[in-house]
Specification:
This protein is mainly alpha-helical and 239 residues long. The protein folds into two domains: 117 residues, no CATH class; 108 residues, no CATH class. 21% of the residues lie in helices and 5% in strands. The strands form two sheets. A two-stranded antiparallel sheet has the order 1-2. Strands 3-4 form a two-stranded antiparallel ribbon. The longest helix has 14 residues. The termini are far apart. 10% of the residues are buried.
Length: 239
């Protein structure tokens, strides 16, 4: 069945399934350089895809332009991946997926991926909508010359944010201070007073790491909003 679309002897650039996946980047499933798997596939593959059981998800293919699934939307995925309501309770109303034909494929590749759980690269998923954040982050990197924060440097957005099913502001993985402490354990032990009992005089909200640091718009070393020699302190401690 698969060979109706995937011609076994097609020449480079003449892939018969191309019209059906015109909006999908080739590297969503394939490695652009090298792979130990046949077809330069990513190291992680969907089980039914690797076993060439296309009919588990797809209807019989009549033409390369007419590739359909047996069930529409997320119900196709939940047919095997049983829906755990405690895990997916926010999905239906989540802004990232509510308008998608299949919310699962917003973050996951259906066939193969270079990442575990078939997740798409954050840099591809997030930047599609968060263009202004990407521009600010790139400008910050240029201005600061060097950014040591790995999730920012490597665009590992999901280290700090959950792409969906979160009730926290900005879809943070944890409350702000514990979230930063996951990587910055030493700084968490010896720090400027922070927490719900310490109020930021500029806005009356609890003082947190982000009161002084900015992950996407820093203007000074250590990803600070202001230079630490004086300008940062006088934002709150007026002379």
């Amino acid at each position: 069945m698969c060979k109706k679309c995937h011609e076994p002897r097609c020449k480079a650039g003449q892939v018969s399934i191309a019209s059906a996946v015109a909006d999908t980047g080739c590297t969503a499933c394939h490695s652009g350089h090298s792979s130990f798997d046949k077809g330069l596939l990513g190291p992680f593959g969907h089980k039914v895809f690797l076993e060439k059981k296309c009919e588990e998800c797809h209807n019989p293919i009549k033409s390369p332009k007419d590739i359909t699934t047996k069930i529409k939307g997320a119900d196709l995925c939940f047919n095997c991946h049983k829906r755990n309501m405690s895990k997916y309770e926010y999905v239906d109303n989540d802004i990232h997926v509510k308008d998608a034909k299949n919310p699962c494929t917003v973050c996951h590749d259906e066939h193969a991926s270079s990442q575990k759980n078939l997740t798409k690269k954050e840099s591809h998923v997030c930047a599609k909508c968060h263009e202004s954040t990407e521009r600010r982050t790139s400008a910050m990197e240029s201005a600061l010359k060097s950014v040591g924060c790995e999730p920012i440097k490597d665009r590992k957005c999901f280290e700090c944010h959950i792409p969906s099913h979160s009730s926290r502001p900005l879809n943070y993985r944890a409350d702000e201070i514990p979230l930063c402490a996951r990587c910055h354990a030493a700084q968490h032990k010896i720090t400027h007073p922070v927490g719900i009992d310490i109020k930021d005089p500029r806005n009356g909200r609890p003082l947190t790491c982000n009161s002084c640091h900015s992950m996407h718009s820093a203007n000074a070393d250590f990803m600070l909003t202001h230079d630490r020699k004086r300008a940062l302190c006088i934002q709150c401690h007026k002379m």
